């Protein structure tokens, strides 16, 4: 907990953001530069995203219900989400 070190609760958000960026950088560094069929990795990712978008319904999360549920929650991540 950041409070234990005398830090603001936003320090936790910043730490999690940095951890997420480092994880994504590591994942991207593992991707091959070219795929055997002559397509590059970005084209393949775009195709996968389009496929997933066609399968996933438009509204997965009821925004209004989520805002109501988290209205009194003081967790910084939930405040940003709302």
List keywords for this structure.
82 residues; mainly alpha; 4 helices; 61% helix
Verbal overview:
This protein has 82 residues and is mainly α. The chain has one domain (2-81). Helix content is 61%, strand content 0%. It is flat, with a radius of gyration of 19 Å. 0% of the residues are buried. The mean pLDDT is 81.
Most strands sheet: none
Share of β-strand residues? under 5%
Instruction: Give the domain tally.
Output: 1
The quaternary organization reads as single chain
Question: How many strand segments?
Answer: 0
- Spatial shape: flat
Detail the topology: elements first, then pairings:
Layout: H1 10-30, H2 41-55, H3 63-70, H4 76-81
Summary?
The chain is an all-alpha fold and 82 residues long. The chain has four helices and no strands. The protein has helices at residues 10-30, 41-55, 63-70, 76-81.
């Amino acid at each position: 907990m950041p409070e234990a070190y005398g830090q603001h609760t936003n320090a936790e958000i910043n730490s999690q953001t940095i951890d997420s960026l480092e994880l994504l950088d590591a994942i991207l560094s593992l991707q091959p530069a070219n795929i055997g069929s002559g397509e590059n990795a970005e084209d393949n990712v775009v195709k996968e995203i389009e496929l997933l978008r066609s399968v996933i319904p438009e509204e997965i999360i009821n925004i209004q219900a989520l805002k109501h549920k988290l209205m009194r929650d003081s967790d910084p991540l939930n405040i940003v989400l709302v």
